[in-house]
Amino acid sequence: MAIRAAAVHLPRRSLQVSEALAGGLLRPQDHAASGYEALPAAEPGDTPEAFAVEAARLALELAATRPSAIRLLIHTWLHRPAHPFWSPAHHIADRLGAGRALPLSVQQMSNGSAAALHTAAAWLTADPETGPVLITAADTFVPPGFDRWRGDIMLYGDAGCAAVIDLPAPGRDDLQLMALASTAAPHLEAVHRAGRRPGDTGAPHPRETRRRFLTEHDAETFRSAAQAGAAEAIRTALRHAGLDHGGPAPRMVLLPRVGARTLAALYRPVLERLLPGVPCLDLGQHTGHLGAGDLLANLAAFPAATCSLPPGEHALILNGGGGFTWTCAVFRRPAPTCPSHRPTDTKAQT
Known about the structure:
The protein has 350 residues and is α/β, with parallel strands linked by helices. The protein has helices at residues 17-22, 28-34, 48-62, 88-96, 112-126, 206-216, 219-240, 260-274, 294-300, and strands at 2-9, 14-16, 38-40, 72-76, 102-105, 133-139, 159-166, 175-184, 252-254, 280-281, 314-321, 325-332.
C-alpha cells in the first residue's frame, strides 16, 4: 500500500505539564512517569470531529487529492464527549465534501488507527477501485467526562489525525506500507471494565478499573502478556517484510505515545531484545497520548528531520490499545523517481 500523505491537527491551546504539577492537577509520580512537557487541549465548543476534518483537509492537500475522489472514509476514536447514537464518519465525509465515499467507523481503543489501516489495506486488496482511502482519528479528553491528568497512568492530548492511502502507482515515490501485523489478548479486556456494573454509562476511569483488575490478577501476568503480544506483532511484521533473516535493520521504531514508564515496562525491553541498537523514538513530548491517533500522528512525523527516512530504508511503528491489541507496521521509503517520467494520476489531481 502507498501512503499518499498523513497529517495532524492540534488545537492552539497547549497545557504545560509543569504548570499542572504546580497547580496540583497532576501527581508528582505521574509527572515523573510520563516524561512529557505539554498537552494540546481543545477549547470549549471544539469537537473531535472538527479536528478530524481539519486533519483530513491537510492530508488531502498534501496528497493532492480531491475530497470527491475518496471512495472509503474510515474514522476511529477512543473517547468522544458526545451522545453515541450518531455516525461521526458520515458527518466527517459530509463536512469534507466526500459525498462519494463510503463512511465507516472502526473502534479498537487506542489501537484504532491500526485497525483502520488494516481495514483499508484489506478493502483495497479486495476491491482496487476503493482507493483512495481516507483514514481519520480524533479524540478530545475534556472535563467533566475525562480527567486528562489523573484519570489514567498516562497523559492525554486532544488532536485530529488523518492519512490518505491507495494502491501503489507507477512513477510515484510515496511511502510504502510493507507489512502490518496484529495480535490480541482478549483475556485482558477487563482492565478497562473491572469494578464497573453492567450497563454503567458513566465517565471512564481507567486508572481505577486497572487498579481493580490488578487486585484480582498478578501484575506480572499482565506485563508478560503485553510484552508477548507486542513481540509477536513485531516478529510477524518483520517476517512479512522480509527483514527477519539477517537483512538490514530498520532505521528506527516509532513508539506509542503512552509515557516513559509504560514504554519502559512493556515495550522497550521487547525492542531491545528483538532489534538491539535500533533507535526507538517517543514523539509524545508535546502531545501526550492522542487516543486512537498515535499511529497516524507517528506516520505524519516521517518527513520531519528527527524521523527522516532515506530511500531504501525501513521504519517500524509500534502501537497498542486496550482489550488488548498490539500492531506493528513496517514502512519503506522507495528510491525517488525522475519527475520527468512521472505519469499523471487522475485520481490525485486537485
